[in-house]
Amino acid sequence: MMAPQILGWGKEGHYVICKIAEEYLTEDALAAVKSLLPDQAEGDLAAVCSWADQVRHHYHYRWSSPLHYVDTPDFLCNYKYCRDCHDGHGHKDRCVTGAIFNYSMQLSQGYYDLNSEKYNLTEALMFLSHFVGDVHQPLHVGFTGDLGGNTIVVRWYRRKTNLHHVWDTMIIESALKTYYKRDLMLMTQALLRNITDEWSDDVPSWENCKKMVCPDPYASESIRLACKFAYRNATPGSTLTDDYFLSRLPVVEKRLAQSGVRLAEVLNRIFTKKLSVAAQ
């Protein structure tokens, strides 16, 4: 069980997403992922899925902080890449969707170019796996004015927190405690069952990406869910209890599942055996 100490989707959420993704990787993709993982991961992508959160406050990686989210105009409830994807200084492409485009490109170009020293592919894999998760967290595509819910102070039952943290961590923590005996693997298995069962008709629409990667539709889904579920009935100072938890948990669980399926899909596309053709 991972320690319950957290930021973006929280460690638990990212762990679950990468565990789901591993179940859907092709043989080629799984081999490529294992070859790129750092030693401390011991062949398990989920072990390093929170790495990007752990390093964002380190001096050498502080530049990566804006890559975890994209802020959208208050109350419009829509997302547009050219309008929204920039950091606080206005530098273009520095947001979560821009980062997903960038790191998927680095992996697809760098992995099959045997002379390529240009990219750190291990870091690219860890960033990509994390950011595909982040773009699915509705408040990572929240409003600029409240920093994606970070400045909306609420109570989660008796605990004082902010709305962003509720969606990153607390809904998942409460679910683990209430339904899954505090066991992340039980939660992961339940979501995997839902993917083949309850959501099986939806899954093809999760995968309808005709390019290497499609972060823009994922961001658009997130801001719509933020408006419909995250911000609704969660004004500053409110106390969120069972009503909010029970109606929002299905949204969170489905987003975790979608992230996992889509991350696998991206990695499968990046790591198809292009090499065998090139080598002939």
UniProtKB/TrEMBL annotation:
Keyword Hydrolase annotated: yes
EC number, as in UniProt: 3.1.30.1
Coiled coil feature spans: none
Statement: the UniProt record of this protein carries the keyword RNA-binding: no
UniProt entry keywords in alphabetical sequence: Disulfide bond, Endonuclease, Glycoprotein, Hydrolase, Metal-binding, Nuclease, Signal
Subunit structure: Monomer.
Family designation: Belongs to the nuclease type I family.
The protein, known as: Aspergillus nuclease S1
Species assigned in the record: Anisodus acutangulus
Species classification: Eukaryota, Viridiplantae, Streptophyta, Embryophyta, Tracheophyta
